[in-house]
């Protein structure tokens, strides 16, 4: 028999008062009371307990799992660097007992206040620095172009005197920019958004199309120049063949002539001139020679006069130009601005550049589709900051373009073995 209360699970209607208290299913309520009673016996109701008694936070983790993961995956270098800690403790900001005396007061500093002020003035500048420098016997200003007086020694009086160092005129001038309109080029160009390692698709595609068209144009120009060179070599070879054919025809024409016919073909030699004729020809040649000499001297004199006039006009133009430069310096400084260009844009340069060697072209730094990476660990860095800065200095006119010499002539050294090991003597017999 069951201990449960009688229940009627299937009731058509429970509207009557009789059905309210008779045969009601209380199985769920009884099971809930039994579960609460069991929890009270076990130690308390779970719903009434706080969270710290029910749950535990594992901060250490399982050592076996950590060991297994470390054996499979090597830790990153950045994690190793961050995990490394110095064995030297940090300097605390609190007062230590060693800084306090027996009476509980702070010990006085080892450096006096006057000495502290003097050291502070030396470190941060001021009038005290100039006094100390003057007292030490050295001067702070040094002019490398100043003329140094050197005492002449009589035994070396026959030698040529050294010329003094002369300061270049262009040393105090600002560098001339190589841009066509004369505006200043920024030292660091704005980076193009398409050159990023994780670029925007539209900007990257526009840059890729632009560089592709430029590469195609360069290749077409190279092929056209190669074709023109090949055609030129073919024409030269054809001219050489035609010349050799003409010589062979000329030789074949002279093969049929005999010795008598050759003598008849020779022109009749002129008769010997008389002394009068020779003197007349000599006088005529002397007169022609003198006329040519006089004409050359007159032309030379005219050139000298013309050079003097040109030199005078050039000097006057230089004076007027210097005056105009000094007057228009402020206006030009205001008119000159800084170009707003990006890295990779075609910059129009002036024809007359600084130096004989042309400026090297900027490297191609666009990332191709197969070179794009979705992870920083698989990223391959590109570019060279040293080359970029050097090219920027050449564009701004700070330095002269130079050509890279990979195999420069090195200094030769002669290696020889000392023979000091031969300088020995037999010990005397005892």
UniProtKB/TrEMBL annotation:
One term under GO cellular component: nucleoplasm
Name of the protein in question: Ribosome biogenesis protein NOP53
Matches recorded under Pfam families: Nop53 (PF07767)
UniProt biased composition (Basic and acidic residues): 96-105, 215-238, 285-301
Region (Disordered) residue spans: 1-20, 92-111, 215-302
Record key words, sorted: Nucleus, Ribosome biogenesis
One function term, GO molecular function aspect: 5S rRNA binding
An example Gene Ontology biological process: ribosomal large subunit assembly
Organism annotation: Didymella exigua CBS 183.55
Bias-annotated ranges (Acidic residues): 240-260
Location(s) in or outside the cell: Nucleus, Nucleolus; Nucleus, Nucleoplasm
Protein function: May play a role in ribosome biogenesis.
Family label: Belongs to the NOP53 family.
Biased composition (Basic residues): 11-20
